[in-house]
Amino acid sequence: MKKIAAYLPVLIIFLVSISFAQSNKPEPVLPYSPSLDVSSMDKSVDPCVDFYHYSCGGWQKNNPIPPDQTSWGVYGKLYQDNLGFLRGILEQAAAAKNQQDKVTQEIGDFYAACMDETEVEKAGAGALKPELAAIAQLKSAHELAPLVARMQLDMGGVMFGSGSRQDPDNSEQQIAGLNQGGLGLPDRDYYTKDDAKSKETREKYLQHVQKIFELLGDKPEAAQQNAATVMRIETALAVASLTRVELRDPYKRKNKITLADLEQLVPSFDWPGYFHALKAPQFEIINVAPPSFFKELETRLKEEPIENLRSYLRFHLANGYAAYLSSPFVEENFDFYIKYLRGAKEMQPRWKRCVQYTDRDLGEALGQAYVRKVFSPELKASTLDMVRRIEDAMAQRIEQLDWMSPATKEQALAKLRGIRNKIGYPDKWRDYSSVKITRNDFLGNVERLTEFERHRNFNKIGQPVDHGEWGMTPPTVNAYYNGQMNDINFPAGVLQPPLYDAKMDDAPNYGNTGGTIGHELTHGFDDQGAKFDAKGNLRDWWTKEDKQKFEERTKCVADQYAQYVVVDDIHINSRLTLGEDVADLGGEILAYIAWKGATKDKDLKLEDGLTPDQRFFVGFAQWACANDRPEDMRLRAMTDLHSPDKYRINGVVVNMPQFAHAFSCKAGQPMVNPPDKVCKVW
Ligand SMILES: [Zn+2]
Q1: Separation of 431 CA from ligand 1 center, angstroms?
Q2: According to DSSP H, which parts of 490-577 are helical?
Q3: How much distance in Å is there from the Cα of 575 to the middle of ligand 1?
Q4: 330 Cα to the center of ligand 1, angstroms
Q5: Does this model's pTM top 0.90?
Q6: Distance CA 366, CA 388 (A)
Q7: What is the pLDDT of residue 24?
Q8: Ligand 1 center–CA 488 separation, angstroms
Q9: Is 92 exposed, middle or buried (0-12, 13-18, 19+ CB in 10 A)?
Q10: CA-CA distances (angstroms) from residue 532 to 387, 404, 418, 419, 536?
Q11: From CA 315, how far away is CA 151, in angstroms rounded?
Q12: CA Rg, the chain, in Å?
């Protein structure tokens, strides 16, 4: 991924109800910013000393972090502009009476129900009553299965994760899968680390859990005791979970067993009852990873008195739903997850949350309206042309690599040729018409759409893989490579100014979006992607010597980024960010080669005092202009696969002689790695 997907804010606020039930809504407009903006630079900084600050100093000064944001960057700002634009589309849809068009009606009704605060407030936590009653009646761990299944269908993960996934050995086939989960803090390391800040975070989390119990009606003393129980169960599950670095290794995520094996691994859970309640198709083989987690789950189920398991479920039910309930729940959720953990000062206004919920739950309905307005066939053609040029550059680069043998090169080229390019939006849209969406039942809409998505996911078990499927919605400002699909995916939302700017020339566009395309392609060949072959199967296609040379080269990158400080005394965990750092470097080299090829017959001129090469690099840096909060940096140091923005720029250019040449940087300057430290993977 180019950027961490924006966390869906689990939160929020109650404003005065906004009236939108009027016709003649104005046509929404997406604000324009150019892909290279000289006023965003700080030319008083020497580009050879700190290129990021040189390119982004003006942007940082002109763009303080809004109080409702946890960080603020070019991607985040475009995403917020997108939310405003989508709001216009949704208000038009909600105001339209007697809709004939099913899709417009779906998104309009969903958004209207979400914006109806009076209804939401009136419903309070009442919607949880049936499930709370079912939890209260639990007599043994064996009875948990249908309830856990129900909760997972309505609200997503609780206790563990489950669904369909591609078979790691046969990427054309979908199989069933279970994985670790069940925690209320964002990472297992929060439960295990011993430093003062981690201890403080656990203390705050305990208070949050207690508060949720009190909101459910527990007396403070009981709530405190129940919170301690939840913390103890989660800590045991966390200790048995893989770290994020371990999770990057696809072999550690692979453990195909039979259903009979699963019943032996966790005999206290009623697996047949569970899969029956999920209405999952019949299957024999299931991927269960990691086994250590499920072993610990068995211990918890066997040893915890049933009232402890009831407390655990009760908390996760209310915590999982908090964002959709009445204001005390919403506020408590915001206070802990967004304000304390990530540093935002205010909740996002309700409309922003409602637009995001619509995008999440009806993304391919809202996406149709979005692409009609912002993604023309010309834009698709020009970005596809850029993709092809960057793929050609990659082929050329692989052929010329001086450290790789012809045998491995052949495999790498086959993998490159096998990559599918998905640009803008899916060819076939998801059909939500089987789901009941009403204008006065927001929580019910969310539940039914979550259930629809969960069933859609489970129903893939045993089916061939659908290569047309997308893992991001069209308005998303992000892109991804999927190793098992061997495809790159660029939603329409990431192909907008200032990232891809049809009004601008090639230099900043190749530096920026060209680099992103190269980044996603390189993911197919980073330390993780290189473990999958052209078909997306987990198979070693490397000669032993080439593998060793590849690992030496990625280690160069890991060593370089390990030097960088994120916040206070916390350094980058460069084994966590390695894939992204390798992709950043490879991507920009590919973009540069492709740009040179695309403009070889053009007469490129000096503009704004910058040479064409300088404009390529400033265009590159300006995708990453950002301001950050220390709280958020701390959380991301633990959970984000990407390095902080500054190092995603400076860490790349130090390894590119083309950069040093463009700005006449000398050996020994900070933006020039010494010759023996220059990293080059692809
Ligand atoms: Zn990435």
Answers
A1: 29
A2: 506-509, 515-523, 544-562
A3: 14
A4: 32
A5: yes
A6: 29
A7: 63
A8: 11
A9: buried
A10: 21, 17, 12, 12, 5
A11: 12
A12: 25
Total length of the chain: 682
Distance 585 CA to ligand 1 centre (A): 11
What string of DSSP letters covers 46-88? -TTT-HHHHHHHHHHHH-PPPTT-SEEEHHHHHHHHHHHHHHH
- Distance (Å, whole) CA 184 – CA 202: 11
- pLDDT at site 16: 31
Collect the ranges in the chain with pLDDT lower than 50: 4-23
Q: What is the pLDDT of residue 28?
A: 86
Read off the tokens for 220. 């403070």
Centre of ligand 1 from the C-alpha of residue 477, in Å? 13
Place of tokens 């209260």: 136
For the chain, report the end-to-end CA distance as a whole number of angstroms: 18
Cβ neighbours of residue 548 closer than 8 Å, sequence gap 6 or more: none
Q: How far is the CA of 71 from the centre of ligand 1 (A)?
A: 19
The per-type count for the chain, helices as H runs and strands as E runs, is 29, 11
The alpha carbon of 175 and the centre of ligand 1 are apart by a number of angstroms equal to 26
C-alpha distances (whole Å) from 472 to each of 8, 82, 182, 478, 486 are 13, 15, 24, 8, 15
CA distance 524 to 298: 37
Residues 6+ away with beta carbon under 8 Å from 98: none
**b/e map 37-56, b = 16+ CB within 10 Å:** beebbbeebebbebbbbbbb
Rounded to whole angstroms, the Cα distance separating 189 from 367 reads 36
Show the DSSP H helices in 304-340 as ranges: 306-321, 327-333
What are the angstrom distances between the C-alpha of 170 and each of 165, 285, 289, 489? 11, 13, 18, 21
d(CA 196, CA 189): 13
Strand 71-73 versus strand 170-179 pairing type: unpaired
- For the chain, the maximum distance between any two Cα atoms, rounded to a whole number of angstroms, is 78
Predicted confidence at residue 99, as pLDDT, reads 61
Q: Which one-letter DSSP state was computed for residue 627?
A: E
Measured between alpha carbons, how far is 272 from 96 in angstroms, rounded to an integer?
47
Q: Which two tokens stand for residue 561?
A: 């980024």
Q: Where are the beta strands (DSSP E) in 524-632?
A: 565-567, 570-571, 626-628
Tokens linked to 130: 């049936």
Cα of 4 vs centre of ligand 1, distance in Å, is 8
Alpha helices in 175-258 (DSSP H): 189-192, 196-215, 220-239, 244-247
What residues pack around ion ligand 1 (CB closer than 5 A)? 1, 580, 583
Region at 12 (left for phi over 0; alpha for psi -120 to 50; beta for the rest): left
Q: How far is the CA of 3 from the centre of ligand 1 (A)?
A: 7
Give me the pLDDT at residue 253, please: 96
Measured in Å, residue 14 CA sits from the centre of ligand 1 at: 36
Gap from CA of 574 to ligand 1 centroid (Å): 14
**pLDDT at position 97, please?**
72
